[in-house]
Design a protein that fits this description.
The protein has 399 residues and is α+β, with helices and mostly antiparallel strands. It is built from 7 helices and 18 strands. Helix 2 packs antiparallel against helix 4 and helix 5 packs antiparallel against helix 7 (366-398).
Length: 399
């Protein structure tokens, strides 16, 4: 007859939360998400896959092919799978696990894995990426953020000088689909702006020189936008575009505008005898240092214009301190929380330039640290097992 008393509901819930079964299910889901994300990357690109499968806003994922057809049942988003796995690791791998000198190595390894999961969560919500392009012999102290398109609305003073602009933030534009409408309010200026037809990559055409299809945007001042194939290899080659309708307080249309990132100059309109300039652009990201590019060298794959190898010799100038660096693959420059990688290279036009990917991530080195800690924990565990095995063998021989 068993003496064990029946478990309460709380104990059963705790058993499930901290159980090994949840860890197995989570690891299986992460395998499927990584597998289908890798396949889908061929059609929609790396960034789109990360946003679809691993972003904090992705609660449910529908793996699909390039033609939009689903290839698997819906899966939970990877971010939330890792949240569940982290809770399970904390409850089962640290709290519920046996404590003692025999399990100290296992506990250290579990803590390291949990720390790595936390590093991934911090990175997904706080990492900022951008690119700096510098021609050989020139310098730059700013970058442009990836995937952070903004609209700047600036008015001109009496002398025609551009005053500091008001910004439609990238957070408002980021999730805007082609058929969505975003109303930007400018109460101090007495008008609103309805933004629609947002395209992540587009071309601008003149109506009298290009045949317009039903899928193209409306014609404004003889021009229209046409969606272009998204360039997955060079983010800066994608020219976003949209339409903007400016209205007064009563809702009367003042002017309709086409905003295209490839336009070399801003578009303008007049309201209450005041001229305004409107620009669709990538968000400017000031750097805490200046980069002087002295030498940019590279090679192309045979028969192509795709760079195969490239490296840059630069000088970093920060607070009147100058430091020389050579940047190439897997050898970035780090300074003040910013990491500068060699991203691309070209000598088009006879003047070489380097494209540097810039990343700031507070958890940049955390996965590396967690691997060191996990290695130490496993080493301790294996050494303890070895000593126990050797001690047991010695006692067996004596007996």
């Amino acid at each position: 007859m068993s003496n064990s008393s029946p478990k309460s509901l709380g104990q059963k819930i705790w058993r499930v939360i901290s159980g090994f079964e949840i860890a197995v299910v989570c690891l299986g889901l992460l395998f499927l998400l990584t597998f289908f994300g890798t396949i889908e990357q061929k059609w929609i690109g790396l960034y789109a896959v990360i946003q679809k499968y691993f972003d904090i806003d992705s609660f449910l994922v529908f793996p699909s092919r390039g033609d939009g057809k689903f290839i698997f049942l819906p899966l939970p988003g990877a971010y939330w799978v890792m949240v569940v796995l982290s809770i399970n690791m904390f409850c089962g791998g640290l709290i519920r696990a046996r404590k003692g000198w025999k399990t100290v190595g296992v506990l250290i390894s579990h803590f390291a894995i949990l720390f790595m999961l936390v590093a991934g969560a911090v990175s997904s919500v706080s990492k900022v990426e951008g690119q700096m392009s510098v021609y050989q012999g020139e310098k730059s102290d700013f970058a442009q953020k990836y995937h952070t398109t903004t609209i700047e609305v600036a008015k001109l003073d009496e002398e025609g000088h551009r005053l500091p602009p008001k910004i439609v933030p990238s957070e408002s534009l980021r999730s805007l689909e082609r058929n969505d409408v975003l109303r930007a309010e400018f109460p101090d200026e007495g008008f609103t702006m309805d933004i629609t037809g947002m395209l992540g990559s587009s071309n601008l055409f003149m109506e009298r020189t290009a045949e317009r299809s039903n899928e193209d945007g409306p014609v404004v001042d003889g021009f229209f936008l046409r969606e272009a194939e998204y360039n997955k290899d060079n983010e800066l080659a994608n020219m976003a575009g949209c339409y903007a309708t400016v209205k007064d307080k009563e809702g009367n249309e003042i002017q309709e505008l086409i905003l295209w990132m490839g336009n070399p100059s801003p578009v303008s309109f007049v309201h209450n005898e005041q001229r305004y300039l409107v620009t669709l652009t990538m968000e400017i990201w000031p750097m805490p240092y200046e980069v002087e590019l002295h030498k940019s060298v590279g090679e192309y794959y045979p028969g192509t214009r795709k760079a195969s190898t490239f490296e840059s010799t630069i000088t970093k100038v920060a607070n009147d301190q100058r430091e020389d660096y050579k940047i190439f693959m897997n050898n970035p420059m780090r300074h003040g929380g910013f990491t500068l990688f060699q991203a691309n290279w070209s000598d088009t036009g006879g003047k070489p330039f380097s494209g540097f990917a810039i990343v700031t991530n507070p958890s940049d080195k955390w996965p590396e640290y967690s691997l060191y800690v996990a290695t130490v924990g496993l080493l301790i565990h294996f050494l303890l097992m070895l000593f126990r095995f050797a001690g047991g063998s010695s006692r067996s021989r004596k007996s």
